[in-house]
Amino acid sequence: MVDTTDLILHPVRLRIVNAMSGRGTRTTSELCASLSDVPKTTVYRHVGLLAKAGVLEVADERRVHGAVERHYRLRRDRAAIDADAAASMSLDDHRRGFAAAMAALLTEFNAYLERDEADPSADSVGYRQGTLWLSPDELAEMIGALREVFTSRAANQPSPGRSPHLVSAIFFPSEESPQRKTDQQTNHRS
């Protein structure tokens, strides 16, 4: 059995999962068109790996010009790394996962900018960073509120007037917390 963490933490497979999110079903040919910067053989190989692992499932098969065309659907429950899996990841796993996510994000952003109709201002593109001073309770409250916002819209389906938007939230301490420093200093003295 393929480890979901290893499977998902790959830039091309992350992009396939993003391309499948909220779109019902898609064929590999449609994914190739969506990920036009990725060689078709690479898209087919990664779709096969995701299907074999159960992250994608075949929703329908049709004969097209003598070949079987599969329509895949994303299994959201298998396309995420749950809290337990994330807690068991090593620091190197987290480093690799972050790098894969950033590589996928950068590639998606560059693909957006390459479109003839790209207009970051009109499209409300944002990529701000800032530092917030938060207690553990305030951080948990903020993450909970953001989860509610994202969850309330995660089930949205394609419809007239809606277009897909890639959203990425990243949280990590920018410095060691004062409490952790104090705890470590106390432990070193004991």
Explain the overall architecture:
51% of the residues lie in helices and 11% in strands. The protein has helices at 4-8, 11-20, 28-34, 40-52, 83-88, 91-114, 136-154, 178-189, and strands at residues 25-27, 56-64, 67-74. It is globular and about 70 Å long. α2 packs across α6 (91-114) and α3 packs across α4. 14% of the residues are buried. The protein starts with a helix and ends with a helix. It is mainly alpha-helical. The chain has a three-stranded antiparallel beta sheet.
Query: Helix share of residues?
Result: 40-55%
Which blocks of ≥5 consecutive residues have pLDDT under 50?
none
Largest sheet data: 3 strands, antiparallel
Shape: globular
Q: Given the helix and strand composition, which structural class is it? A: mainly alpha
SS strand fraction:
5-15%
Number of helices: 8
Question: What order do the helices and strands come in, and which of them pair?
Answer:
Layout: H1 4-8, H2 11-20, E1 25-27, H3 28-34, H4 40-52, E2 56-64, E3 67-74, H5 83-88, H6 91-114, H7 136-154, H8 178-189
Antiparallel strand pairs: 1-3, 2-3
Helix pairs in contact: 2-6, 3-4
Brief sketch in words of this structure:
The N and C termini lie far apart (45 Å).
Protein traits:
3 strands; globular; mainly alpha; 190 residues; 8 helices; three-stranded antiparallel β-sheet
